[in-house]
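Dear colleagues,

For the upcoming journal club I promised to circulate an example of a predicted protein-ligand complex. I picked one with coenzyme A because it came up in last month's discussion. The inputs are reproduced below in full, followed by the predicted structure.
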Amino acid sequence: MKFREMLASDMDQVLTIERNAYSHPWTEGSFRDSLAGNDEIWLLETEGAILGHGVISVAVGEAHLLNICVSVDSQRQGLGRLILHYLLTRSEGLGADIMFLEVRESNSSALALYHSEGYQQIGVRKNYYPLGREREHAVVMSRSIG
Ligand SMILES: CC(C)(COP(=O)(O)OP(=O)(O)OC[C@H]1O[C@@H](n2cnc3c(N)ncnc32)[C@H](O)[C@@H]1OP(=O)(O)O)[C@@H](O)C(=O)NCCC(=O)NCCS
């Protein structure tokens, strides 16, 4: 397994993983904006097959985890934790001393992962995410780096 940055040619594979894993996946436009901007999109792959992806934005000492996703077939094998570690190390290398993220309050898998990795809740964004015809709160978390 290795990490590498996403290329435009990875789009179809990444979108398939994203759409199968999320109820509200990122659009192709979201990935294109991240590729064109200052975000970093990292892929975990093995023998040419992409297993998951993660997106960070790092500036002025702060890192933001914008997306982390593991292919449904590869979940619960430690890969989400591996990607999270990689993104934290990468953020540290880019000068960040704190990581922020947001997660749906119903996303118990991701919440368990973040808590186990030392992230703490620092706030709630009310009615932040779409949920059918309604909205769902976002839990805002952070952890220091280094
Ligand atoms: C959240 C996600 C990235 C976790 O990836 P993963 O590879 O399945 O997770 P790991 O195997 O590394 O597990 C790490 C920890 O996460 C938690 N976890 C993962 N899946 C879980 C589940 N189904 N139920 C409960 N806890 C879970 C556990 O604490 C687990 O540690 P453990 O195996 O020692 O109990 C993955 O479920 C995913 O891609 N979900 C869809 C996209 C998403 O919701 N991303 C997060 C957006 S904020």
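Two points we might discuss: The radius of gyration is 15 Å. The pocket of coenzyme A is lined by residues 21-22, 68-70, 75-81, 103, 107-110, 112-113, 116 (CB under 6 Å).

See you all on Thursday,
B. R.
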